[in-house]
Each structure stands twice: as structure tokens, then as C-alpha cells.
């Protein structure tokens, strides 16, 4: 048993030694203090107020020591200025401020020599500087480190009581109790503030989760509406177009071909709509994992437009771009072709997709329509512009001199933008 007890004492001594070294050796990052979240102006005012408080205390102390004959007032004032610096340093790094102030409190009676008469272990003015620092340390540092600060502070008081150049009065026990009480106050305030901050963070997380759930519910509602309205109508169009040749046997071959193309277009629109609905559905439902269209699918858009009777001249370069960038280019071409068919029916369309330096350039230009088209709400142009800006690019759209309309998108394909979009 004696060997086990000795081993326990040895481990405790080593742990205490490591704790004392951790407290005395600068390093690590300080804990957050409540004023760190304030505005810069408020922090500057706080620093000015703390510095003014420290200067008042030091001026009063140097005057008292000068009147008692213990030290020259000017010398004492200059010597005590680092204590004011330690007090200000405590606002940002409490443990470093405590180290500096404790060192100066220990050296003060040895540097400022004077007549020998009893003074407290720490005088009132010294407590006026040390106590706020101890409160800040108890607030900011972990509990184990605060215990180490208390041990070192007690050791400092013992040295001042028995080894100082100024004979001190016998109030060591009271001083030790004051140190323990002040540290405990700081630790209690810090624990309370940490609890309030944790509660605020938890409330923020709860609000964020509720907002996310609300967004999911809204997305699910939109998905249901789109499915019930748009998908149903498209399905009806596709079914009627596919069954028309069987219901009307006298249809000419041209009409049969037209209806077949109409049905194929409706089916493609249904497929893309199902992909969109998969993204909008709730989290417990899986979205369609089919590959997204890219630059290689633009040729299919051109083919479909030509089959619909649109005169399209296409200049498509074979480029290797990130998948998100290719999807954006595909959607811009898709929307631009749809706009040309809607607003300028019968107009020829010039389409070009090429790379110019670090830019992927998508250009869609149509001439004046052969007959009046339908007006729109401008949502398509807004969507194309938002897609381009997502990649750090630009999109310009406007009428041409001959009465047509031109859309031009410039999308960066540099490594940093490509990595960010991916």
C-alpha cells in the first residue's frame, strides 16, 4: 500500500508541475470574452476606460509611496506603468495580462526600496489591479488552468509574505481566501456566460432547422403543384399526340409525323420535369440520378428545333468543361431557342458555342419573326442571367439592328471558377 500511495503522490506531483508550467509559460489562445463581439468603437472605449482606471490607481499608489517615504513618486509611477499595460492586455489575453502583472507585483518591493515598516502582503492599490485580472482569467481560461493560476497566485503571496524586501503584516490567509474567492467569481461568471452562449447557439440551430423544414415543405408543395398541373397536362398532350393516328385513321402522313414529333417533345419535357421534381421533393425521397445534360446534348436541341421547322445554323465546338458549366450552357441554349420560337416564329437562328481564351462563349441570335409571336414575362432571361452569374460570368440580351434578338453568355472556365462551381 505504501508503494501505491507513493506512486499516487508522484503522479499528483507530476500533474501539478505540468499544470504550473502550463500556467507560467505563454502559449495557446485565450477564451472568448463578452466584449470581443462588440463593435470596434465599443472595444476602443473599453480599452480607454481600463487604461484610465489603471493610471488613476498607479498615480494614487505612487503618491502614497512617496508620502510614506518608501520610494520616489516619479520612479514609482514609471515602474508601475507596465501594470497598466498588463491591465489593458487582459482585455485580449487574460492569462498573459495576469502573468505580466503578477511578475511586476513580485518585483515591486525589491526594486522600490524604502524604509522598513509593515505593509500588507498586497496593498489595496495592488488588489485594485490584480483582482479584475483574476476575474478575467477565471472567466476566460478552462477550469483546470484556473486552478493552476490559483496555485501560482498562492505561491506568489507566500513569497511576498516571507521573502519580500518590505516587512509585511501577517494577513496571508486572508489574501489566499481573496484570491480563491475572486477566481471563483470569474469562473462562475464565465460558466454562466458560456451557458447563455450555448443556449443562443442552440436556439439558432433550432431556428435554422425549422426554417429548413419550412423550405422543404414549401418545395414539396411546389413539387406537388407542378406534378398535378404541368406533368398531368404534358402527359395528356403526349398521350393524345401518340394515339391520334389510331383515333383518326384518315390523317395524312405529314400530320402523323408532326404528331409523333410533338409526342417526343412532350416526353422529353416530362423527363426533365421529373428530374426537377426529384430535386424539389422532401428529403426522404430520392431525386433522379440520371446524368445532367451538357455541351454534347446541345446538338440534340438543334436537331429537335430543326424538326420543329426552325432554321438553325449551329457552330458547336467540342470542348471539355466542368459538368456544372456544361449544364449551364445547355440551359441557356435551350431557353434562348425556346424564346426565339415563342417571340419570333419562323425566324432563322444562329447558334455558336466556342471557347475564347478563358471564356466559354454561348451566342444565340435570331432574326425578325415571319409572323407575330407571343409575349412573355421575362422570367427566362432572368433565369439565364442568374445561371451565368453563378459561375462568375455575364449574360447580355437585347434586340439587334435588323429587328431580331441576340443572347450572349460569357462563362469563365478557369481552374478556380471550375473548382468552385464543381
From TrEMBL:
- Coiled-coil annotation: which residues? none
Q: Name one GO cellular component term.
A: membrane
Q: Which E.C. number(s) belong to this protein?
A: 2.7.13.3
InterPro entries in UniProt: HATPase_C_sf, HATPase_dom, Sensor_HK_TwoCompSys, Sig_transdc_His_kin_sub3_dim/P
Q: Which keywords does the record carry?
A: ATP-binding, Kinase, Membrane, Nucleotide-binding, Phosphoprotein, Transferase, Transmembrane, Transmembrane helix, Two-component regulatory system
One Pfam family this sequence matches: HATPase_c
Catalyses: ATP + protein L-histidine = ADP + protein N-phospho-L-histidine
Domain Signal transduction histidine kinase subgroup 3 dimerisation and phosphoacceptor: start-end pairs: 218-283
Question: rRNA-binding: present as a keyword of the record?
Answer: no
Membrane-spanning intervals of the chain? 45-65, 71-90, 146-164, 176-195
Q: Which of the seven top EC classes does this enzyme belong to? A: transferase
Q: Where is the Histidine kinase/HSP90-like ATPase domain?
A: 330-414
Gene Ontology MF term list: ATP binding; phosphorelay sensor kinase activity; protein dimerization activity
Q: Which PANTHER family match?
A: NITRATE/NITRITE SENSOR PROTEIN NARX-RELATED, NITRATE_NITRITE SENSOR PROTEIN NARQ
Entry protein name: histidine kinase
**Source organism (scientific name):** Modestobacter versicolor
Amino acid at each position: 500500500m505504501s508503494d501505491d500511495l507513493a506512486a499516487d503522490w508522484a503522479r499528483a506531483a507530476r500533474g501539478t508541475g505540468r499544470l504550473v508550467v502550463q500556467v507560467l509559460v505563454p502559449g495557446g489562445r485565450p477564451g472568448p470574452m463578452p466584449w470581443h463581439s462588440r463593435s470596434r468603437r465599443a472595444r476602443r472605449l473599453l480599452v480607454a476606460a481600463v487604461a484610465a482606471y489603471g493610471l488613476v490607481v498607479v498615480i494614487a499608489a505612487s503618491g502614497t509611496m512617496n508620502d510614506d517615504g518608501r520610494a520616489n513618486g516619479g520612479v514609482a509611477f514609471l515602474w508601475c506603468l507596465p501594470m497598466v499595460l498588463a491591465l489593458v492586455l487582459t482585455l485580449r489575453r487574460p492569462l498573459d495580462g495576469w502573468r505580466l502583472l503578477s511578475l511586476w507585483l513580485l518585483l515591486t518591493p525589491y526594486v522600490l526600496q524604502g524604509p522598513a515598516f509593515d505593509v500588507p502582503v498586497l496593498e489595496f492599490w495592488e488588489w485594485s489591479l490584480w483582482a479584475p485580472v483574476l476575474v478575467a482569467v477565471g472567466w476566460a481560461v478552462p477550469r483546470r488552468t484556473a486552478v493552476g493560476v490559483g496555485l501560482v497566485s498562492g505561491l506568489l503571496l507566500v513569497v511576498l509574505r516571507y521573502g519580500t524586501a518590505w516587512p509585511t503584516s501577517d494577513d496571508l490567509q486572508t489574501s489566499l481566501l481573496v484570491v480563491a474567492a475572486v477566481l471563483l467569481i470569474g469562473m462562475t461568471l464565465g460558466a454562466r456566460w458560456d451557458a447563455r452562449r450555448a443556449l443562443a447557439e442552440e436556439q439558432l440551430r433550432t431556428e435554422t432547422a425549422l426554417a429548413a423544414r419550412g423550405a422543404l415543405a414549401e418545395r414539396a408543395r411546389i413539387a406537388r403543384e407542378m406534378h398535378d398541373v404541368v406533368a398531368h397536362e404534358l402527359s395528356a398532350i403526349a398521350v393524345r399526340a401518340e394515339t391520334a393516328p389510331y383515333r383518326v385513321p384518315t390523317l395524312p402522313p405529314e400530320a402523323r409525323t408532326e404528331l409523333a414529333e410533338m409526342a417526343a417533345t412532350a416526353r422529353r419535357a416530362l423527363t426533365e420535369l421529373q428530374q426537377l421534381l426529384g430535386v424539389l421533393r422532401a428529403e426522404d425521397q430520392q431525386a433522379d440520378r440520371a446524368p445532367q445534360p451538357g455541351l454534347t446534348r446541345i446538338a440534340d436541341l438543334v436537331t429537335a428545333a430543326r424538326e420543329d421547322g426552325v432554321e438553325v445554323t449551329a457552330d458547336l465546338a467540342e470542348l471539355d468543361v466542368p459538368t456544372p458549366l456544361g449544364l449551364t450552357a445547355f440551359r441557356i441554349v435551350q431557353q434562348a431557342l425556346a424564346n426565339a420560337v415563342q417571340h419570333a416564329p419562323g425566324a432563322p437562328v444562329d447558334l455558336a458555342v466556342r471557347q475564347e481564351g478563358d471564356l466559354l462563349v454561348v451566342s444565340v441570335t435570331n432574326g425578325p419573326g415571319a409572323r407575330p409571336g407571343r409575349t412573355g414575362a421575362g422570367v427566362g432571361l432572368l433565369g439565364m442571367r442568374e445561371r451565368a452569374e453563378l459561375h462568375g460570368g455575364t449574360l447580355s440580351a437585347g434586340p439587334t439592328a435588323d429587328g431580331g434578338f441576340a443572347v450572349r453568355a460569357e462563362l469563365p472556365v478557369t481552374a478556380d471558377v471550375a473548382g468552385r462551381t464543381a
